[in-house]
Amino acid sequence: MATGLVLVVAGCGRGGSAELPSACHFAGGARTVRDALTRAPGAVTVDGTPLSKCLGREADSADVQSVGAAYVDTAADLAAKARANPHGAAAVQLGYLAGAVRRGASKTAGIHYELERRMEQELNGIDSTSPEFVRGERAGEASG
Question: Domain limits at 22?
Fold first, then answer.
């Protein structure tokens, strides 16, 4: 699923030189993000870095691509679980990730537009009004 994201996002960065926080390199890929999200709706960080801080305004295109791929892969995995169990932990975690992406992307002048679009696609078929999803989403928007 992330393949389309990889192709489109590669040209989206501004060629910036802002350094991505080291925690955002996600040594374990999407698994690192999924593992961190088990703490949702509590504060979710990777080595102390909130997920939204991995979406930098002056991000290098390779960083935009790798972070986006990890987030979309995670969203796809959580969405499948949330569709099967709309009131489970996956709905909270998916809501948190969606909120954190919105929080981070809102400060990047459109650089992460494609990531936001792909995240919204992954939410198709999700009950985004369920108390679990909403609780996670609000937490992600507030502190993600």
Answer: 2-143
